[in-house]
Amino acid sequence: MNLEILGISVLWLFLFGYVIIASIDFGAGFFNAYSLLTGRQHILTHIIQRYLSPVWEITNVFLVFFFVGIVGFFPRTAFYYGTTLLVPVSIGIILLAIRGSYYAFESYGSRGHKGYSFMYGAAGLVIPAALSVVLTISEGGFISMKKGQPVLDYWALFTSPFTWSIVVLAISAVLFISAVFLTWYADKAKDEGATRLLRKFALIWAGPLAVSVIGIMVELRKHNPTHFDRMVDVWYLLVISAVMFLITVRLIWKRSNYGTALALLVGQFAFAFFAYGVSHYPYLLYPHLTLYDSFTNEAMAIALVIAFILGFCLLIPSLYLVLKLFLFDKDYVRGKEKNHV
Amino acid sequence: MDSGNAVFFSRVLTEVTLTFHIIYATIGVGIPLMIMIAQWVGIKKNDEHYILLARRLARGFVITVAVGVVTGTAIGLQLSLLWPNFMQLAGNVIALPLFMETFAFFFEAIFLGIYLYTWDRFENQKKHLLLLIPVAIGASMSAVFITIVNAFMNAPQGFDVVNGQLVNIQPILAMLNPAMPTKVGHVLVTAYMTSAFVLAAIAAFRMLKGSPHLYHKKSLFLYMKLGLVFSLASLLIGDFSAKYLVKYQPEKLAAAEWHFETDKGASLILFGVTDGENIKYAIKVPYALSILAHNNPFAEVTGLNEFPRDETPPLYIHYLFDTMVMIGTFMIVLSAVYVFGKYKNWNFISSRWFRWLIVAGGPLTVIALEAGWWLAEVGRQPWILYKYMKVAEAATTSEHVDLMLVLFCLLYLILGIGSIVVLGRMFRKNPIEQEIADREAEKGGDFT
Ligand code: HDD
Ligand code: HEM
Ligand code: HEM
């Protein structure tokens, strides 16, 4: 394995971590708003506050890690993506900022304003949509070079069915991941009302997820045949992912083994995510930028890898501690302890 | 919008974002240490007041951290969005500390989450205090790493340029650049200083508003003492910073001091106005500039006229320097009088007007902090990477920076007002008298 691959693998892994944890968070906000709207308030509020409040800052760091890391390992991405993504990423930041800060304002400061809950829920869907545009752009066809500067063609971007199929995928994935996780968490917390509701959400959102994946494959074939062909080359990864998806849905349907269902869900997304990543290789931005021509110098790469290994040794035990305290501690999960500052 | 405008709006957006972030970031660096000291004193003296102080601070801290984190995420991404050419170049040489910073964030975020949710979970209070140590270390280390990046922009090294290509890159050498020791030191101690004086100001304010509780007195005295220590340290390292400038960025110091002609025994100029090179209405302190620059009243100080006109920073940074130094000196005097007066039982330090001065000290220190950063950053103009790349060459060519500027200004307005309102409500709804009473009831009498 060379340094380029090592670098992108680590970053892809952290992006995957962000996608999963952030999806849980975004989806939870949406479900909360929805249950308020339908008059079933507070079924979810407790779960959300118990699980999500302690970890929202950690979730954010996964994102920071990814974008700092990619500019570190592949500095030329700053030039291509930085120049073109000003608008979508700025919108993403602003929404993230409002969402993140109001999280703290709400959970620690004042309580329950309905309008706020709706905005919060809606932002949870708009953010993944805005950020997923980055993936769309990386497929090429929307950026052209003018006078040596990359320029993004917004009209082409927003009229392309490919863009919209990725947006639908992002939203349904967020809601599906979130619903499956929260079903498991609510079940562990012995909160039957919440479990029942969340299970229903999980089953509902499995449908759009499957449809949008198929839609994307169709669109990708038209949009970027090279990528599509490479995707077909790794068909076995996609099949494993699909099988895991079916078992997850079945387990939820049968109301058994929510824990296994959650593990399979993570597996499903891991296989799909890495199949996508592997087939995207070697391009970071098709066809302008590859891993190799954007890579940093060797000295920096080695320094970054060493820093990463050292940092990782620090992180693993700390993350373990968090999981132990907030995810696997029975009393905490059931809300028996009130130790908040 | 042409590219000149893109540069202009990118500058304004960077200025706005950093000016806003730095307030919350500085508090984020300093407050964990302040909480730690309070909790430690509380455990040591077995004094519930200090423990409560730590607890209430931690609660407020959640709000400022949240704003710090989201605005930090904004500036982190904006570096690539607004200065893609710079990040492309700098990423090759200085990505290491930026990357290490994310680990510091991770570390801080994880333990902060644990710390906040485990009050009273441990029999032994000391164990809970231990959880705060990684938070304080993480916060200070993130300041250290980002300041190293900033130091590199002022004194780049650790690479060579051959035929327009970067070669011979040494990431560690780039981190250990000559601007690093004074910058990192000054930024850290001023962050602690700012936090201490802001907390002292809050305590003084509560007392002025008629809460004579012992709790506020203890808090005020503790943070005035800490403020004194850290403001003296700031002065000392600030003096080292000036000596660094003399050696490596003499035009920054010369512009900050309106020192046009190179001469010996240079005097320090305070305030005043310039008209060309005529300085009017200024206070001149003879020999002081030579002392600041070289520790020798007769030493020679390089003047601004030695440098090409288009490579010198704007002259208004003089006022920024004056503001910072005046406030720094004022805070040293104020806190020294208070701490000394406390031991000597001087009455006037408990008078209303003196307390109002302490209240003013909080915002003043924040102003000094802003002035310091503006001095450092504007004083580097026109360079983004000193002697290698100009700001104008670094900016994006995107056409929508002006619109983004408007959106971000709105965002910061919302965040700024929101955080103040929420903090105010949080403490007003649960005043200290109430909380002490609650805890006594809870503990069933074994309250000491
Ligand atoms: C509470 C804030 C505060 C206070 C009271 C002071 N400073 Fe400061 N100063 C800063 C906050 C600051 C800062 C925000 O931390 C800066 C900006 C960038 C940096 O490295 O530190 C800074 C920069 C800075 C620089 C420029 C360094 C550079 O550009 O590399 C000099 C020469 C000084 N300071 C000197 C002083 C002196 C002689 C002070 C006398 C009391 C002083 N500062 C008080
Ligand atoms: C160009 C300058 C800067 C960049 C790019 C930057 C970047 C960031 C980022 C990305 C975060 C969010 C991290 C998270 O998700 O937890 C953050 C927060 C933070 N930043 Fe900044 N930062 C800058 C300047 C500074 C400075 C000068 C300081 C200190 C003196 C500082 C101290 C902090 C701290 C302590 C936090 C954690 C949040 C808090 O405790 O309030 N930053 N910054
Ligand atoms: C990675 C680190 C940093 C980068 C890439 C960076 C970049 C820049 C750029 C390009 C400007 C615009 C210059 C101009 O307006 O002419 C600027 C200005 C400024 N920066 Fe930095 N900076 C960094 C670190 C910091 C830090 C840590 C702070 C502290 C808060 C800071 C504070 C400021 C301020 C206050 C200005 C406005 C000064 C002005 O008008 O020129 N910067 N910075």
Please explain how this structure is put together:
The complex is a heterodimer of chains A (341) and B (448). Chain A is mostly helical. Chain A has one domain. Chain A has 14 helices and four strands. In chain A, the strands form two sheets. Chain A has a two-stranded antiparallel sheet with strand order 1-2. In chain A, strands 3-4 form a two-stranded antiparallel sheet. In chain B, helix 1 packs across helix 6. In chain B, a hairpin with a 3-residue loop joins strand 9 and strand 10. Chain B has 14 helices and ten strands. Chain B is 72% helix and 6% strand. Chains A and B meet through helix 3, helix 4, helix 5 and helix 13 of A and helix 2, helix 3 and helix 13 of B. The structure holds CIS-heme D hydroxychlorin gamma-spirolactone and protoporphyrin IX containing FE (2 copies). CIS-heme D hydroxychlorin gamma-spirolactone (HDD) binds next to helix 6, helix 7, helix 10 and helix 11 of chain B.
Number of helices of chain A: 14
Most strands sheet of chain B: 2 strands, antiparallel
The level of helicity of chain B is over 70%
The averaged pLDDT of chain A comes out at 81
Shape of chain A: globular
How can the largest sheet of chain A be summarized?
2 strands, antiparallel
The order of strands across the largest sheet of chain B is 1-2
Protein name (chain B): Cytochrome ubiquinol oxidase subunit I
Pfam family, one (chain B): Cyt_bd_oxida_I
Organism (chain B): Heyndrickxia camelliae
Transmembrane segments (chain B): 20-41, 61-82, 94-117, 129-153, 184-208, 220-238, 316-341, 353-376, 403-424
Question: What attributes characterize this protein structure?
Answer:
heterodimer; A: 341 residues; mainly alpha; two-stranded antiparallel ribbon; 14 helices; 4 strands; 79% helix; globular; B: 448 residues; two-stranded antiparallel sheet; 10 strands; binds CIS-heme D hydroxychlorin gamma-spirolactone; binds protoporphyrin IX containing FE; electron transfer activity (chain A); cell membrane (chain A); transmembrane helix (chain A); Cyt-d_oxidase_su2 (chain A); transmembrane (chain A)
